Each structure stands twice: as C-alpha cells, then as structure tokens.
Amino acid sequence: MRPSRVVLGVLGCVLAAAALLAQSEPPILPNGSAVPNWTVPPYRGASASGGLSTMTDTSPGIAFVAMQPCRVFDTRNANGPYGGPRLVANTTRNFDVDSGPCTGIPTGVDAYSMNFGAILPDGIGFVTIWPTGVAQPTVSSINTIPGYVLANAAVVPAGTNGSISVFPNTGMHLYGDINGYFSDALGNNQFEVRSGGGTAVYGENTGSGYGVWGNSASGYGVVGGGGAGGVWATTSGSGSGVYGQNTGSGFGVYGKSASGFGVVAETGGAGPNAAVYATNTSTNNGANGVYGQVTANLGSGVLGFSKFGPGVTGVSGQTGSSSSAGVGVRGILVDINGVETAKGYLGLSGGWGVYSDGNAHVSGTFTATNNKGFVQPHPFDASKEIRYISLEGPHTEVYFRGTSQISQGVTRIPIPQHFRFVADAATYSTLVTPVGAMATVAVVSEGPEGIVVQASRNVKIHYVVYAEREAVRNPDPIIENVHFRPDPERDVLAHLPDTFRQLMIQNGTLNSDGTVNMETARRLGWDKEWEGRGKPVAQPPSD
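The structure assignment produced for this chain is given below.
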C-alpha cells in the first residue's frame, strides 16, 4: 500500500457536544446482525487540489465500488484481531480491513467508506482514525460523551497492508462497518455491473468522449448482463458508443442478454465514428476485439445498423509473415452439440475480403440468394461502372486454359502442377478450338500426364481444360429446405427478390395472398417448431 499517496479522508471537524446530544441514538447491533447502509462521505485522493471534495468531483482514476454493508470489527465480541478487548484510553490499535471478515475487498485499494460507533465511553473525549503507517493526525473522528452511543461515517485511506489505526483518549467499546471502497487500480479485478432487469450498463455522452469505456489487463473491459439489454451506450458527439480495451486474454467488450441485445451502441456524431470500438493488443490467437454469441433460435452474434457507413467494421492489426491469421470479423456456426460446422471471415490476412470455411458441403461454401460477381471502373466514362456476373453450375469446377500449335498433326498439352493438386483426374474435360483455318480436331487422351490433341491441319489451337475438385465432391443440388421456411417472428422474404415469393407460392409454402400455407406447414412439421413461439404471422406480398 502507498500511504504517502493519500490524504486523511476522515470527517475532521470536531462535533460540538450540543450537536451530539441532538443526534438520535443508533441501534447497538449484536455481532452478525444486519448492518444498515449509510451515505458515503466525500473523498478525493492525492491530487493538485488535495483534501476533500464532493462525490461529483472525484479526481481522475478514483472510483467508488459499493459493497453489501458488513461489520469489520466489534470490540464487544470475544478477544481477537477483530473483536475484544475493550479499547484502552490513549492506546492505539490497528485493524487490517481488507483481510478481515468482510470478503470482496481487493488488496491495493485507496480508501474505505466506513461507519464507526463509540459505545458507552468512560468520559468526554474523542476517537481518531487514520491509515496505519503515517503520523497520527490531530483531528477527531468521533467525539464521545459518557453513557452514550455515538456514530459517525468517515472515509479512511488504507494504510500499511490495508490497515487502519484507532486511538481513543478514553476507554470504550468500538465497532466499524464498511459499505464500499475507493480505488484507482482494483488490482486484477474488473468492474462488473449486474442488473435484475432492463439494462445492466447504460452510458450516454453528448460530447466527444465515450458512452461506456472499459480497460482491463486480464478480465473484461466492459461486462453487462441483463434481461433486455446487456450494455447500452449512446453518444451524439465524435466519440464511440462503447469502447472496450483489453491488453490480456479476455474481451474488450462482453455483453450477454436473455432476450434482447448483448451490446447496443449508437453514435450520431459527424465523421468516421464507431458505435462499438474495441481493441485487443494480445498476441493470443484467440483474443477478440468484439465477441458476440447467440444461443436462441433467432438473432445475430453481432448486429450493426448504419445509415451511410458500415454497420459493423472489424480491423485486425496482424501484419507480416505469421502463421497466425489476422481477422477483421469472424462468424462461427455451431450445431446443437456445440460442434463447429462452418466459419466465415471478413478481412482475413492473406488478402481475403471474404473467406468461408466449413465442415459440410453447403455450410463450407460462399452462398448467395442473388448473383455473385465483380465490379470495376469504366475506362472512359466516369459516370459508369462495369459489373460482371459469375458463371454458375451444379459442379465444383476448376480449370486452366492456354494456346498451343499443332505440329505434324499432333500437340501435347502439359498439365500445370497446381491443377494436378486440386483436380479429380477422372473428370478431365477438354475443349479445343482451331484458330486460323478450318480443321478437324480430336482429344486423343487426357489425364495428369498430359492431354494429346490431333488435328487434320497444322493450326494454332485454343484450349480450356475443366475438372471437378478432388477434395470437395459435388453435392446434390437439390437438398432439404433450410433457408426458405416461413417464420412466425419475421418475414423471411423481405430482403429477397419478389420472384422468390412467387416460387414459394408455386411450391405451396405460401398461399396466393402471401400468407403461410398451414397445410404445408403441418405436413412438413414446421408448426411443431413454432409451438411456444406464437402463431405464424401472415406474410403479405410485396408492393
């Protein structure tokens, strides 16, 4: 402990005897009885201004952590470090608060919020309480009157090994209760906020700071758990709704919710702001900036909304040649037993914008309900761009192409090594086009050792060699419906072309008016999945 860094935070004014007589006598609680709470006195640690301050003006880094009121010591109890004997006049006694019977007080705190009671003192006098290891101050914490029980609340800085010292100038019994502590470090502990309902953590900032800010070396930057929302933060300035930083192996931001959102953050300021901004500087491959998990049937691990910019942006600082891949955003799908069945990455080291990985034919592919393709600038018109659509088919195809010259009626096409590594040799298919003159061409043989082509004339030929991937066999293109089932809680077609709705009317999933065909739902067992979640809602056709 650092007693030189704190100032004595006790209520140092000497109470007049008339004022003491006017106080109502607090109850004398036997050991183990419930201790009533009290108002936490103001406190400020050592700073430029020093001394006491109001709770709304605490110095940077000093935080009050409340705890269940608890009795630290009572000299009316049996003799021991936190019990008797009765205090002797002009004799100092020390109490190690953070090692006492009140659990949950970490080592290294700055000060304790305590309430002391002087019980039936021998005479008019005082009690001084201060951090062990520093000089005794010339102030009074409690003034005493013979035959009375008088109490006073005080913030006492923690002294050597977390202890406080007590000096009475008259004999008496004394008890000390605690209801919280002040800290600028909290050791290896983290702030954790729990709520019985609603939102566990709510932060709002209308300037340029953060709605919620958390920093931890080994625990969690921000932790929220609640019934409707884990962490909710808004900012209308140029900062971030939620900022979580973790320099160890935990999470920057961690949110958990039973029915709502684990983390909700909003930002409305101008500029490239972030609703949720989380950094993790650990070299641990499993460390995450933002981690989202959904255990219900519906929902998203991480869900982001944005009017103009990205809803969710993930940035990874992994650079250089390393076996550990940096990932901007990672999505993982697990089955009912918790086994990973598919993974998807946005921004993967190696130059991949989108990377899909999985254990099944369908989940391990990049799949879309609309076209896949690429876009590039128009070379001559700044108002235009060029869009191409990918060629689709039921097979997992690979290919290579080239040009060769027929000589003495024959040519041999070599197979590139990379093609031999990925292609199924039994599925080679070669297309040959003569160039420059009419000619009859034929593929005499094809395989990993090469492709032999004969022609009726010595012409140049273009060729394309196709094959199926050897490592991934072609799935049956017609499989069980998992993506186009009606749902009672959402319109599953809202984001799809209207032609899809027409197909689902045609196959009997929907009625002609767009509502759910309950006969089909019962026949396929979908209605059983809806039990307990409410009845299916009508899905009207789009305009």
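Interim note for the steering committee: The chain is about 5% helix and 35% strand. The chain has four domains: 3-183, 193-313, 397-468, 480-543.
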